[in-house]
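User: I'm preparing a small set of examples for a lab meeting where we compare how different chains pack in three dimensions. I only have the primary sequence for this one, and I'd like the structure in token form so I can line it up with the others. Please keep the answer compact; I'll paste it straight into my notes.
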Amino acid sequence: MIKQTLLTGWNFMRWLRLLIAVFIAVQAIQTQETFYGFRAAVFLFQALTNTGCCGANGCAVPTKKQDLDKIEAVDYEEIK
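Assistant: Understood. Below is the structure token output for the 80-residue chain.
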């Protein structure tokens, strides 16, 4: 389960979070700032677990699957 999460589903946002984490980590080491180290750890955690501020796909709009084979009759009512 964890191995599958780490190795699959790498999209643009995961790569961007990973690059930001590496950049901030390098800056934290160079400037010896622990706050930036914690910030880099948060971005690294988000990149590795595919989570964001809202969790995994928390901000995504759910897709509604439609059954194209099933056609429903629509009743109309005339309003005067």
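A couple of notes for your slides: Residues 12-31 form the longest helix (20 residues). Residues 2-49 form one domain.

User: Perfect, thanks.
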